[in-house]
Amino acid sequence: MTELDSFLLYALTAVILFALGLSSLLSRRHLLRKIMGLNIMSAGAFLLFISVAHRNGKVFADPVPQAMVITGIVVSISATGFALALARRIRKKTGLTSLDYREEPSPENHNRP
Amino acid sequence: MTDTLFDMTLCAALILAAWRVLHSSDHFQAVVLFITFGLILALAWVRLEAPDIAIAEAAVGASLAGVMLLDALRVMRSVGKEHEQEKRWTSVAKLPSFHLFFSFATVLILSVVLISAVTELSDAQGGLTDLVHAELEGSGTKHPVTAVLLNFRGYDTWIELGVLLLAVLGVLSIRECSNLHSLAPPVATTIVLENLVRGIMPLVLLVSGYLLWRGGFAPGGAFQAGVVLGAGCILLWMAGHRSLTMLHDATWRILLILGFLAFLALGSYSLLSTGVFLAYDRQYASIQIFLLESAATLSIGTTLAGLMLALQPLKKDLPR
Amino acid sequence: MTIWNIFSILFCLAGGAFFLAGVVGMLRFPDAMSRLHALTKADNLGLGFIVVGLCLRSLVVPVIIKLLLIWLTVLLASSTACFLVGNYILQEAEEKPQEN
Fold this sequence. Notes:
heterotrimer; A: mainly alpha; Helix Hairpins; 3 helices; 74% helix; B: mainly alpha; 2 domains
């Protein structure tokens, strides 16, 4: 019974993390918040994978979802890197930090190193 | 009982950290809390008996993602009066109400559907553990996760190395630079950091090789070793050490594509000899896995370092 | 409950208490420099206590050496980080009167 409880606990946490990330992706304007929301969404998805793997394995946790999640972590960090490069380019070219047409462009910060 | 209490505290900490990441008004605070979230998540992986993922998450989520986000934050910050405008701008309450209502309604409906789906999953089913353990002897390693990654699902690993390569190529094309030498040489920083890096970099290389070797029989493997290597290279550059600029230009390019090419070469050889792409000969499986793992480590380390380093100032952008 | 277990629990609790003290210092001290000082000192010492507690749990020599190496490396890294942050705080403080 405790095994089932632990699975339910982590699975519900995973769903809540996914929902939090999705809400940030949809409703926050700043690009960095969107990117962080995307990362938290993927963390929620991975948590669901591994909670299922933990419930399945009796002696050893199921290795196939673990391999998928390791692959997923590396893919998500490369997507984050690319998204950050795009966000920085948008900032440099237009001075905007979001994709909203109502924002006024602000100058770059040259003071800090 | 204490196990459940610890699990509940961990999950509450995860949700609290995620909430603060997404709803704090200061961007720097959000990025720091994101790093904290990654580290608490690594603890959760250990609780769920997935130590491979814990090592990868601690290295990636805490160090690499944190460094990239902090660097992006430095570029995307405003200064002075614009800072006030930005603070008002990013508050959720300023959004048009239809947009807000729509996004929250979507999230609510999605969470209800997901929660009902997850509670239906409660019936314990088989899983692939027994199948993996049955085939483990002929696979070339003793660790099931490594066997799955590099033997049973080797195709996925090959494509993943391709995705990494695509991301680096994307970043390079955005920056309009094509090699290591178009980056401005790193700025020398304080003596303390330089000497620390000089002393610690061999240790980083040792840990990376140790994780790679250990993946054959215990938690570890190519990805964890590659991530540690990438983080070490980023640290080397950030500390102002010039050793990376002394590498030949072709070295970096070869290292970037080495992992993808190794899988492709092995797969083509097995396609030509046995008719199946990426088939593993039972006799030579351990040697094949070792070669593929080493190539993948070098490739992953260089790619992840390249994702960060390609965003540093270029030679042509520096003020004269 | 052997004597080693009791001592290791005591050391881990002491380490936790030091971490808690460091966090309280970070939240309650007035300016950045004192917060940095509290956090770095308390975290290093807390980690040392936890490492000693873990060494007492596994009385195998290779594991003890690895744990002590981990503690030494974290000491090095965190003191360098403390120095860098302190340097930055000093630079910021020097720039502010020049701006005003």
